[in-house]
Structure formats: C-alpha cells, structure tokens
C-alpha cells in the first residue's frame, strides 16, 4: 500500500528502512487519544464551515465505530502502517471513501502526535496518582496499627534515638504526598492543546483552536505554533517526577529488605510477595522489593534517554522526537507496576514489635534524653553531652545499658542525677516526650496520619 505522503517520491521506501521508520508498534497504545482528538478536530471543522456539517458528522461516526471496534478486538492494528495516525486515517478512508480524506484538513501529524502524547500522559498520570493514593492508604493503615510500636531510629545506619514504627513509615507517606504534588504541577503545565499548530506555522484555515482544546479537557492552547509541535518539556518533567517516585520506593525497598533479614527481623513479608531459592530451602527472599530497587535505575535511564534526545534538536519537529515515546511509555509502565505491587506488599507485611523493642534497648539510643535530663536540671548542654558520652563508655566497659546502670554510678559523674532518672530515660518516656510538631510522639503521628488520609480522600 502506498504511503499517504508518497506523491513526492518515485521509489518505494526500502523495507528495512520502512521498519526502522515505523512507530505503530509502540504508538498504537495511543489509539484512544488519537481518535478522540480526531473527533474533536472533525467537529471543529464542521462548526467552522471548513468542511460540511454532514461530512463532519460522518467522520465522527466513522471514528466512533473504529474506536468501538478496536476496544472490542473486532479491528486489529495494521503494523504495515507507519504510525497510529496513518492507521486510523487509512481505516476511516476505507470505510467512508473520500469523506475520510477530509479529516486531515488544517492539521499535521506534528500537532496530532503532540496532542496524543499529552492526552495519553494525562490519562496515565491520573491513574498513577490513584495508585499512589492507594499506597498511601496502605502506609497509614500500618502506621495507625503501630503508632506506639517502639523501634530504634537510625542515622548512618547506627542506632540513634527511639521512635515508633508508625512515625518511621509515615516519612515515606510524606515523600509520596509530595510526589503527587509534583505530578499535578507538571500536568498543569502540560495541559495546553497544541492541536492547530499544524506542521509548525499554523494554517490558512479559520480554525477554532479553543473549541478543540475545551472539548478535549485542556486549560487552553499553546501560544506559539513552533513550540506547540516541538515541546517535549512535559515528558522530561513528568519523567523526572516518575524518577523521584522510584527513588522513594527504592529507599523504602532497601529498608524493607534490611528489616526482613534475620539480622533485623523487624518485619516479615507475606508469602505472596516473596520467593524462595532453587538450592536453599530455608530462604524467603524479598524479591519484589529488590526488583523495585533495581527498576529504579531503568526509570532513571529513561529520563536520561529523553533529555539526550532533546538536547541538540533545532526547531521545529524532527524525527528524533519519535524516540520520546518508548522512553516515556517504559517509564510510566514501570512506575505504575512498582506502585501497584508495593501497596499490597505493605498491607500484608507482618510487623514484630518485640524485635523492634529489643533492638531499641541496645545501642544507647536514650543517651540524648539523659543529656536533656541534665540540661533541665541546669547544666549547659555541651557539659551534659560530654558527661553522657563518658557514661556510655562506662556502660560499654561494664557490658550494660543505660537503663540498668546503678544510680550511684551516675552520681559519680554529677550530683544532679536523682531517683527520677529511670522514669525519664525509659524508651516509652523517650518517645512520649517528643512532643514537638512532626516528632515521634503519639499526638504528632496521629496528626500525620490524619493529614495523609485527608489528602487521599
């Protein structure tokens, strides 16, 4: 079959070059957006008298039939077509004859594909936001159940201060809430219609770009036709947001992997989200979390591929821009899969409070509270800090912990130590005293949970 642009050429495109040039194998996933965009365009052409109302209605009905047939499977993609745009126009022309050939009046594939990818990413990103909200729900469920479960908090992977498990995982909820904001911000900048920019210079027809923009749910139109067809900032911006999401999931995965190990044994993942070993029957591997951690590099690579494609392109459209789709499609597909698997993995994981508490008892993580105790009794903080460091060294020498060191040993360092010391430095007291906003105290954790739950409703 002749290409729709074949009039200028005297020779057919080489078969291998044709395959190399074709994009329908991956851009066919945008068929819904392409057809909806074409229906809006046809309605505008009829409303403006560029084609007759009768022809406009025939085209819209024909496109609706193609959409129904593709959705139902009655119509299959012809991978001999160059791209999804040519496929839809070809089928329409086969069904309507010359009327179908009028659809492409006052537009180009350049503004058509720029429209399709914006609509596609808008749909996919809205789905991703819904998935992230579900993950936030899973996190808050666990946080609510364990808002008083004491564990050691870490810095430098060294035990630092006592916190609650609910407080710890709510940190990831805050990260993911910002991810939603980044996605929504990026979509606001993306949500302007390029349709009507044509190849790069606009058109001689008296079109109504605002009409098609409104019909397709855009906030307005792109104001420069060259920018309209050559802009892929929104791809890079969304992919950057996708990469940040994966970074957050990867950090969470790393902790899940550590917590699942026998060295920690803070949690156990459900059998449904772990695998075994081919040779070691005792193994229960956190493979889903490991895969999420690994796939983060893949999404980073997609972002760098996009930026590299765009970095040297002159205006306006260039065929290089066809390379945007596989990268952005892979990126959104990967992120959605990872978020989808994360939610049930978090919901079903089993938490071991007793192991967390036992770990919190070691490591002298209530040392700061002893320093605060002395400060409240009038000692300068730096002096208190030095004394507590000496007390920790003594405990290490005597192979004991701060809670069990006798009071007379404490009083060798300062007469400010009294019988109330042990109540002040219990793990429960250390957590309960963290009353500052955003801290690990019960009221603060409950406030964090309420905030996230309000966000996801």
| Total of helices | 19
Question: Helix content range of the residues, please?
Answer: 55-70%
Mean pLDDT: 95
- C-alpha geometry: elongated
Q: Distance between the terminal alpha carbons, to the nearest Å?
A: 52 Å
Number of separate structural domains: 3
Output the strand order for the largest sheet.
1-2
Say which CATH homologous superfamily of the largest domain is assigned: Fumarase/aspartase (Central domain)
Instruction: Tell me the radius of gyration.
Output: 31 Å
CATH class of the largest domain: Mainly Alpha
Query: What is the CATH-assigned architecture of the largest domain?
Result: Up-down Bundle
**Number of DSSP-assigned strands:** 4
By CATH, the topology of the largest domain is Fumarase C, Chain A, domain 2
Q: What percentage of the residues does DSSP assign to strands (E)? A: under 5%
**SSE class:** mainly alpha
Query: Low-confidence runs (pLDDT<50, min 5 residues)?
Result: none
Characterize the main sheet. Answer: 2 strands, antiparallel
Order of helices and strands: HHHHHHEEHHHHEHHEHHHHHHH
């Amino acid at each position: 079959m002749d290409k729709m642009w074949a009039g200028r050429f005297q020779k057919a495109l080489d078969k291998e070059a044709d395959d190399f040039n074709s994009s329908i194998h991956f851009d066919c996933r945008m068929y819904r957006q392409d057809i909806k965009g074409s229906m809006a365009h046809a309605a505008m052409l009829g409303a403006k008298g560029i084609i007759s109302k009768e022809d406009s209605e025939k085209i819209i009905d024909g496109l609706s039939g193609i959409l129904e047939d593709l959705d139902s499977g009655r119509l299959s993609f012809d991978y001999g077509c160059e791209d999804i745009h040519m496929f839809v126009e070809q089928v329409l022309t086969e069904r309507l004859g010359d009327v179908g050939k009028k659809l492409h009046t006052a537009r180009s594939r350049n503004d058509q594909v720029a429209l399709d990818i914006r609509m596609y990413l808008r749909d996919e990103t809205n789905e991703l936001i819904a998935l992230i909200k579900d993950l936030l729900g899973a996190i808050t469920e666990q946080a609510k159940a364990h808002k008083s479960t004491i564990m050691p908090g870490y810095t430098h992977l060294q035990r630092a201060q006592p916190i609650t498990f609910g407080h710890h995982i709510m940190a990831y909820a805050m990260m993911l809430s910002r991810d939603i904001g980044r996605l929504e911000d990026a979509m606001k900048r993306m949500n302007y219609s390029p349709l009507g920019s044509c190849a790069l210079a606009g058109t001689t027809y008296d079109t109504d770009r605002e009409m098609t923009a409104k019909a397709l749910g855009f906030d307005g139109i792109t104001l420069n036709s060259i920018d309209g067809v050559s802009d892929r900032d929104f791809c890079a911006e969304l992919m950057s947001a996708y990469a940040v999401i994966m970074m957050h999931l990867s950090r969470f995965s790393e902790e899940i992997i550590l917590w699942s190990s026998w060295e920690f044994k803070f949690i156990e993942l459900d059998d449904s989200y772990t695998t075994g070993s081919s040779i070691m029957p005792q193994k229960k591997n956190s493979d889903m979390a490991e895969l999420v951690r690994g796939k983060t590099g893949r999404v980073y690579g997609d972002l760098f591929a996009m930026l590299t494609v765009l970095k040297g392109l002159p205006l306006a459209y260039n065929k290089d821009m066809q390379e945007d789709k596989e990268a952005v499609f892979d990126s959104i597909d990967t992120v959605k899969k990872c978020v989808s698997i994360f939610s049930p993995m978090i919901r079903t994981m089993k938490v071991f409070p007793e192991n967390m508490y036992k770990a919190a008892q070691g490591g002298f993580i209530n040392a700061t509270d002893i320093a605060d105790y002395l400060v409240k009794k009038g000692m300068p903080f730096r002096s208190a800090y030095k004394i507590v460091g000496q007390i920790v060294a003594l405990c290490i020498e005597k192979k004991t912990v701060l809670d069990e060191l006798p009071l007379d040993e404490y009083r060798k360092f300062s007469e400010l130590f009294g019988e109330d010391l042990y109540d002040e430095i219990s793990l429960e007291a250390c957590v309960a005293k963290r009353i500052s906003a955003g801290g690990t105290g019960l009221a603060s954790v409950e406030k964090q949970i309420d905030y996230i739950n309000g966000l996801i409703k």
